[in-house]
Amino acid sequence: MKLFTQTIFNKPFFVLALVAFISISCSKEDSPAPTVPDTPDPEPISKDVTAHDFMWKAMNLWYFWQADVADLSDTRFTTDKAYNDYLQAQGEPDAFFNDKLLFSEDRFSYLAEDYVDLVQSFQGISRSNGLEFGLSLFANSENVYGYVRYIVPGSNAATADISRGEIFTGVDGQTLNLDNYQSLLFGDNTTYTLNMASIENNTIASNGKSVTLTKEEGLSENPVFLTKVIETNGIKVGYIVYNGFTSNYNEELNEAFGTLKAAGVTELVLDLRYNPGGSVNSSRLLASMIYGTDTSKLYIQQRWNSKIQPQLSDSQLKDYFANSTGESPINTLNLPRVFIIATGSTASASELLINGLDPYMDVIHVGSTTRGKNEFSITLVDLPSNSFIYNADKASSINSKNSWGLQPLVGRNENADGFFDYTEGFTPDHEIREELGNFGAFGDPNETLLAKALSLITGTSTTAKFSVNNSFPLNEIDHSKNHTLLKDRMYLDKDLSLEIE
Predict the structure, then answer these.
(1) Which of 19, 356, 451, 493 has its CA 20 to 30 A from that of 269?
(2) Other beta carbons within 10 Å of 258
(3) Domain with CATH 2.30.42.10 in the chain
(4) Residue 306, CB half-sphere, CA atoms under 13 Å: how many?
(5) Under DSSP, is residue 230 helix (H, G, I), strand (E, B) or coil?
């Protein structure tokens, strides 16, 4: 691969000659004024702008909206000095990135002070107690309550007396509200105690129960949460709860489809209600497990900025359905349709799956409108010799004096029909929402969203049996996955070797 060399300046250097006219007034006294010795101006203190330099150059090359950000313009600086003075005038690296280098419409680009944290987040590794929860506002109030979505197996929360659907209203004796919930739940505290509550007569009230949880370093979550075969009205339905497109677990996902295939399922309900996205390649592999392994059929194609688009080959720009995970043959169900449970917490690679499958099969969306995240990102580090792209095999060459990592949006994915405009999210074919009091266990045919999907498969009425008299509508404002580095990001994990002259 040829090393990429970026030209920052394309205008000739010039020097402006400044002529100062100084007016001197003389004293009327006969004696001359005292002579004041010349004092040279102090040299400005130069600060280390290594991180700023990396950020500007990497974003100038890769950022999807590079042409729309004035400070990233190729003609922004006419001399090396002007460029250096600009960097010297900037604040901390994170403020520089967020305030100067991002396009106003960019909702998802982010950075990390240590790129290792970024890399680990894509592997499903985080500092967590294993409790995944949503947060909602009480009506006409700034007070907040939380509700348990699920618990990561093998985590600290898995050893505690807490389960899906339970409610909490405080932490360490403090009532949760808009001002304190982030510091209490997502701060530096390693251990906290949740103050639990229950629904009584359509009111959430404390029940006296408390649960103490401890965050652990390096917790790894297998996103293939549940695989189950449900037999209903003589139909074998496969059901998979998939909570993140994590490439480290592609084999586990393929094994889950192998189980469904061996069982002879003829329908599939894929539960992505809490899936914020992740790996583009994992999305491609999952699509192949659902639809088929014809590698001549286009799954998605990428659209980059005007600098990068012409430099990428057809194989780099287009992703076709796969017949292998890279380690084993794809276990495909070859289905003509799929039922996908998706909600407002369903984003990026999850939405990519919906869009990528749409030209080829009937995708029936049960739930609520999705997040609307159609851009992808790549991990950029201070590695100019690899065009700033992170590569584990070249990690030793990353500038040891600069640990910052960037995860900027660099492109959009289009499906085989060229469609990509779903920034408002995908609206459901059959709208139905979770409510407190009717959560139900994953895989229970009576669980509200699954029951709706099963009723569509069998052509019968919804079989959910949870009492609506004890339900509580959700006014969700946040959730635990929003406070991880991965959040609702979609990242491209493929070779992007460039041959740029």
Answers:
(1) 493
(2) 17
(3) 125-219
(4) 6
(5) strand
> H helices of 102-196, where?
115-122, 181-186
* The CATH number of the domain covering residues in 125-219: 2.30.42.10
> What letters, b where the CB count within 10 A reaches 16 and e where it falls short, cover 363-373?
bbbbbbbbbbb
Q: What is the DSSP letter of 472?
A: B
Cα 257 to Cα 244: distance, rounded to the nearest angstrom: 16
| Cβ atoms of residues 207 and 196 within 8 Å | yes
Give dist(CA 225, CA 168) in Å, integer: 23
456 is written with which tokens?
A: 């569509």
Residue intervals of the chain classified under CATH 3.90.226.10 are 221-375+411-471
Reported as a single tens digit per residue, the pLDDT across 220-243 is: 999 999 999 999 999 999 999 999
pLDDT single digits (tens) 451-481: 999 999 999 876 555 444 456 778 889 999 9
* CATH number for region 221-375+411-471: 3.90.226.10
Q: What is the pLDDT of residues 238-257, one digit of tens each?
A: 999 999 999 999 999 999 99
* 95-131 residue pLDDT tens: 999 999 999 999 889 999 999 988 888 887 888 999 9
